[in-house]
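Section 5.1 Outputs to date
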Amino acid sequence: MLDFSIGLGSVLNDYSLRQLGRLGIQTVGDVLGYFPRGYQDRRNIPRISQVVAGGLQLATGIVASVTEEIAKNRVSVLKCRIGDVSGSIELVFFNQSFLKPVLKEGLQLVVAGKVEINSYTGSRQLMVSVLDIIRTEVDRRMALGVIVPIYPLSQGLYQSRIRAIILAVIEKYVGQVDDHLPLWIRDKLNLMPLNAALKELHLPTSPALCTAARQRIIFDEFLRFQMTLVEKRQVRHRETTDIRFVAMHPLVDRYLGLLTYRLTRDQSSAISDVAGDVTSGRAMNRLIQGDVGSGKTDVIAAGILLAIGSGFQAALMVPTEVLADQHFRRFSEQFSQLGIEVILVKGGQRSRERKAAMARMASGDALVAIGTHALIEDPVSLPRLGLVVVDEQHRFGVMQRMKLNQKSMTPHCLFTTATPIPRSFMLTVFGDLDKTIIRELPPGRRPPQTVFFPLGAIGKVWELCRNQLAAGHQAYIVYPLVEESEKVDLASAIEGHVMVCQEFPGISVGLVHGRLASAEKTDIMSRFKAGEIQMLVATTVIEVGIDVPNATVMVIVNAERFGLSQLHQLRGRVGRGADRSYCVLLGKAKTEVAQRRMDAMVQISDGFQLAELDLKLRGPGELLGTRQSGLPHFKMADLVQDQSLLNLAHRTALTLFERDSELTRVENASLARWYRSATPFTVETRLN
């Protein structure tokens, strides 16, 4: 541990406190948890004469001159020349006028940034991204000859200042940090003690130790969240409900007898899982995860029939009106043969239809309510709601799901998704649910043949469509936008519809997108399903749940704009019949990542493999979309890079609650205090 001998009082003043407040730092614990965004190894900084163009470069020197220019676009360009015994180099700062009075001649600077060659003068220029000003001997020892932490900052707070504050806090308080992990966990997993990890993260002594310190903090972040999910699941398993269904009601057998095919082993197993939950006396909270076309709808139907046969109501909530209409048509047709009433509730209904639907639901009679988020609106009453099914459940926020649950006293909850979810997401977003995975596809299903064509080869795509139309089949043409955007150079669905109509004269071409009125969307989709419309131009409104077995071609325009999971969902709209089907990716893969996505779609048909790759390529923030409000925020942990630590934390949380379900044992006292508190560290002293 380096000894810089600096007191907290000497670096904290009202100005510093205000600046720290902007960063959300108010307590000692906040300081300790304000981790660097990266590190720079400054143990051997080259002389200025050795700094070369290209890539990130480090340099240190004495300020010789400072000038400021205002460019035509009113951008401030601050230029500062620094030198050492070997030569000098010009530093460039964009829009940082506030630095001009600070960069005084004679001061030593340490800088990092990209070095370029000035096209007019031929001299080197360093575009500064990191700046350290050496004012004191302490500054020098903290910024030179060591591995330096680089912190995210607000304007007016410099790296040297935040480092000095953090150093002073560590010297005074880090010894007071209570290590909440029991010794047996630290020994078993070879984890660094907490106070040593905090010291190493803020005052790194070696890359290896810094990595070990990072692993300790990441494990703690994952463990706290995993403990929350495991405990929640544990509580749910103890939670009883008065809503108990009759085991395998005859209605289920009658429904299965109406089908023209036999269930797969995975479907039968999923139905058994659901039946076991709803007859156990405990409230079901189960996620059914199945790839596109795996037959989740039959599992949903079986769960609904168990509820109806037991005298309860069932509600099925879906993310789009198009999908609500399709489920309504399918279940109405099938359940009418069983004497079961199905009600549709959605935002675009006429007033008379909506009032009639709400009156039937409020009656308390056993029935099935299918709808969009309109189902959770306050006037909707389901007094005998026994089962809640949320289809494509990751598209709904946590609060939306809770509102539907509150329509009844502890209903059984069944969540389904056709979006393959990586294991790391399963352990975070859905870690409190029981899970059933349907991997097996029904007999006779063949994955679509997937091909990639550049936009210039669209003629070949139209030839494929003509051949399939001539054979009596149908085609989807999907665009990423509804209307042309001036900011994004992409073809739109409306423009595409005009072009397809011109390309295929005499062919019935429909257009569907999210901005159409509900009745229009329903009419168009019904006509496409009936075969009256041969080609359907659409946006991603048809991404999930649409079932038209006669459609054998899916053309996705500007495919590079979609993630792998979304492309896989769209591909799943074809290949639903016995005939060979095709998915055509049409676009221009400008980047390496885009090309990898296109290659993966062509080579891989397994949605679970694609989901794992999508997570690596796109990151957790985009994989399930912005509407997924259950995704936790971690300061340091990364769901892609740190999956092994996530798995360790999950297993550890399970073991902890198996050994001590209430965390009341003496050896778990510190762990329990940490877990129940709102802060990651035990020192909550306010800065002053």
